[in-house]
Design goal:
Two copies of one chain form a homodimer. Chain A has 369 residues and is of the alpha+beta class. Chain A has eight helices and 22 strands. Among the domains of chain A are: 136 residues, Gyrase A, domain 2, CATH 3.30.1360; 81 residues, Elongation Factor Tu (Ef-tu), domain 3 (Beta Barrel), CATH 2.40.30. Chains A and B meet through strand 1, strand 2, strand 3 and helix 4 of A and strand 1, strand 2, strand 3 and helix 4 of B.
């Protein structure tokens, strides 16, 4: 949609904003009361840079909810239906946050900073409100706030080389989902091996917003030998890789089992965990929907589509495609779909787009690649 | 900021979207995981149409949180530090929603539909999550969801004539903040005398998203004799009128007393109301900040500014301007500021804009007009 975005103090600026403007940012998507860069005018180049090289992303919209205080560990376990007793300091885990109905209301990374100090690095919903509501209602002794922390992702097969050039060879020893505090020229960072792509890399959690421009420039310089360039959480790569977009692929009734998050739900988590009783019931009754891939048989390359498409079989609605993409590697149009549990892979479906177009499709396994 | 907005299923479409596109919508602002139209390319004309004529706004981003069930009235009172015993069916009240610290987390209109059925018509934060958290933690018997309801505002001195032409003369008897169910050609509406301007008018709560385009066209036709045209919650008029923009004028520490909402807080509300104890303490201790207007002495007409400006006196920070505007009626640059309680009206302050510019200003009463 080619419309401009009105300036408003309600929509906060990224600390990397001026740097991304200098580098030609062309489009944004709203996220957590901020704007996330979504393109720099060269979708083809930005895609292949992520797949074959290295890309740097302003993902400061992944805001942190910091929880500290005597009851912090207790509260964090109450908020998450995944048992956290094995989560160590300096490790971050992908976790669902569910409401009391067992519906996913966010899918953050939970970073354990100290025994009683955590960050939720959140998707696009107001987890600051949610965590404060639960903490206060249960009268827990915690301090909850949004710290001055803004992630910048470096993703792609050359990401390790770039981050090593910036921060030293020791970063190669950081294992998947580990993180550690580091700094470069006095810029304080939390350096984590994570990121919303399957191409590998790091997220640098900037802990001083006033240094955003500096950090961006230093990464550009460090990454130059590897051809680094600006990019963004890639709407094509994530569909190919089957990564979940909370709020896009999920609706107001989606539980974790429906969207391939079984492994992050422990039904023997404590009884006081929010949603655990509902999740046990849902699991016992059996889920009604699940996620599959769909090969979409239309000519041309599907543009980004901002609404779901309906899936039908024999005239009945059997699900919906929640994300569409032209796969540059598969050279096919593909989609992620949430469908009735009895619709398995290898089936032919009819796709009804919201603009009225109709096409055939074939269900398949996720991820595509 | 002249950037495009990427299509994403995470950002939902307004039922009036195609109609606003046909009518030349040029800019948007993100709000409640949707896009609110903020301009049609003629800010001057759009402003005077609101002041002297009549304007129609897509404010479907004002989403509803519906609460029904045996404990609905009980829950709604728990969520709001204003005593609701005198709120009647078919009346909507402006209410603060506070967290347990007494901080405002939303400032909705609360519409009482039936004895145990309500809508919160919300500002830009996830009240669906908040209300569900409190309801579930207190084990109340309620059903909470977002209904298919999308407000469209008709604002300005000619609004009554237009709405009467559309829905009949009986609408003139609807008093301020009253509402009633009506329909036009089978389009179901809740018609309320309300709206985010001081120019008078109505909000038509569309209760069938599939009829958004139809409703828009019918209002255009009905309003033609009065020169109706598209507009939006006006960033200039609201500063002149001193209307609060939650999330823009407020921060993570703002209580209702600081932002002229004393009359909507009843300290003798029941003890189980969320935040009431904190509000009593805040009130007893005396507030530290309050809102004033500022005349801003800079040449030219201030463009919309998306960040706060700092206010200083004798080199010390004494507050911040949270909204800036060129007042077309006063022909002056003005702002709404949140300042130290001892900074009264008629004082000269130094204004430091975030781009480094410096100017003088004089504090004044709110509203400006």
């Amino acid at each position: 949609m080619a419309f401009t975005i009105s300036p408003s103090p309600r929509v906060r600026r990224s600390p990397f904003f001026s740097a991304t403007v200098e580098d030609g940012v062309a489009s944004f998507s709203p996220y957590n009361h901020m704007l996330m860069p979504t393109g720099y005018g060269d979708p083809e180049g930005e895609y292949w840079r992520l797949i074959n090289g290295v890309s740097m992303w302003d993902v400061s919209v992944e805001r942190q909810v910091e929880i500290s205080g005597p009851d912090a560990a207790n509260l964090v376990q109450i908020l998450v239906p995944r048992k956290l007793d094995k989560l160590k300091v300096n490790v971050g885990w992908y976790v669902p946050i569910c409401d009391h109905r067992g519906t996913i209301i966010n899918d953050p990374i939970l970073l354990k900073l100290e025994e009683n100090r955590y960050w939720f690095s959140i998707a696009d919903s107001d987890m600051l409100l949610w965590t404060r509501a639960i903490a206060a209602e249960r009268e827990l002794d915690v301090d909850i706030f949004e710290p001055d922390v803004s992630p910048l992702a470096i993703q792609g097969p050359k990401a390790d080389d770039v981050v090593a050039a910036l921060l030293g060879e020791s970063i190669r020893e950081i294992k998947h989902f580990q993180f550690k505090p580091m700094s470069v020229d006095g810029i304080p960072l939390m350096v984590a091996r994570s990121g919303w792509s399957k191409q590998g890399g790091f997220e640098l959690y900037l802990m001083d917003a006033s240094r955003g421009y500096d950090l961006w420039q230093k990464i550009k310089v460090a990454g130059e030998p590897w051809g680094i360039g600006p990019g963004n959480p890639n709407a094509v790569e994530r569909v190919e890789s089957g990564l979940l977009s909370w709020g896009g692929d999920t609706d107001d009734y989606t539980n974790p089992f429906e969207v391939r998050m079984e492994r992050y739900v422990h039904l023997d988590a404590p009884d006081d965990v929010v949603g655990i009783k509902a999740l046990r019931e849902i699991h016992a009754a059996g889920i009604k929907r699940h996620q599959v891939g769909v090969f979409i048989n239309v000519d041309g390359q599907l543009e980004y589509i901002d609404r779901v498409s309906e899936l039908q079989m024999d005239g009945s609605v059997v699900g919906k495609i929640t994300a569409h993409a032209w796969s540059r590697r598969l050279k096919r149009n593909i989609g992620i779909a949430l469908v009735n549990i009895d619709l398995t892979v290898g089936k032919t479906v009819e796709i009804v787009f919201q603009d009225g177009r109709v096409a055939d499709g074939i269900t398949t396994e996720l991820p595509f690649i």
